[in-house]
Amino acid sequence: MRADILNSQVVSLSNDTIAIRDKSDEKVILLFDVLTGKALGEGKPLTHKLEVVDIALDQCGPSTERKIALVDKNRDLYLTSVRHLGREPKICKIGSMVHSMAWNDAANILELLPKTLYIKDGSDFSRAPHILNYVGTKVTLRQGDGSLVYSSVPPYPALLHTYSTSARWEDALRLCRFAKDKSLWACLAGMAVANRELTTAEMAYAAIGELPRVQYINFIKEQPSKESSLAHMLLFSGQVQEAEATLLQAGLIYQAIQVNIDLFNWERALELAVKHKTHVDTVLAYREKFLQKCGRKETNKRFLQYAEGVEVDWEKIQAKIEMELSKEREKAANASVRSSVASRR
């Protein structure tokens, strides 16, 4: 370890994790547990597609939810989880033309999606200022000439994080109504979804005019079973594989197939149908309907192979789908009755 190559842009520390950019390969970030010194991520480092110029670990919350932000040489900002079990980490781009970044000391606040941004005029700063820290509501920056300047941000986002972590959703809603700030409502929507607080999420999305998301939340609420609701919550958060796994584990094979059909994952939908020997005709029917709308003919050899021996009858398919949904409703009702009896005991 050479101390002369270490600086705040290539090393980041939280109370449970340390991240270091690899000197020999600047696309690689090494992650270690602070207490044990062991490498995280099953011993595999985090590898980005481009050279990384700046890294920062978030400073709050449990270690299982630890996140790292990184800026690459194109000045794009990415966010990913530090701890991921049995799967590749999902690295999400959340900003571009980023020259400096810092996490808040008491709430995991960073630049997020467009509707959650708080934008402040930077004309008072000199060229290429660098963010030193973000404590409370005060941001400290070092200008190109070495002098320090200070800027402040509203206290509401940090307070909203406090309410979210303690599940004080009514207080969070009151705060957003008081502040009358759409970026705050957008933050609340994201926090509520992450905590599966559907009613709060619905109100927050409605406040920022995201009506399709409001409709999808109502669709989630109408699901006949807890497993289906959870799966669609995972889909809502972009976790497709986890959603499918939840449905398959619960024995909801048709629902898992239908999720893939809805996402136009045709190959996977057919694979599940063939594997479980059910709803092959359903997949073929929806595929045929999709191709007709697009004005195209089937060219996939696998679909052509199964289409030869399967008759597509929409009446039978609809009846079969309704039977599957009826079974799910009945199973959920029985589970609810058993739960009620157990609670009385």
Structure description:
The protein is an alpha+beta fold and 345 residues long. The protein has twelve helices and eleven strands. It has a four-stranded antiparallel sheet with strand order 1-2-3-4, with no helix packed on it. A four-stranded antiparallel sheet has the order 5-6-7-8, with no helix packed on it. The longest helix has 31 residues. It starts with 10 loop residues before the first strand and ends with a helix. Keywords: WD repeat. InterPro entries: Beta-prop_IFT80_2nd, TPR_IFT80_172_dom. This is Intraflagellar transport protein 80 homolog. One of its GO terms (cellular component) is cilium.
Succession of helices and strands: EEEEEEEEEEEHHHHHHHHHHHH
- How far the N terminus sits from the C terminus, by CA atoms, comes to 62 Å
Low-confidence stretches: none
Give the helix level as a range of percent: 40-55%
Quote the average pLDDT. Answer: 87
Q: Structural class from helices and strands? A: alpha+beta
How would you sum up the major sheet? 4 strands, antiparallel
- What's the total helix number? 12
Percent of residues in beta strands: 15-25%
Q: Report Rg.
A: 25 Å
Based on DSSP secondary structure assignment, what is the total number of beta strands?
Answer: 11
The main sheet orders its strands as 1-2-3-4
Shape verdict = globular
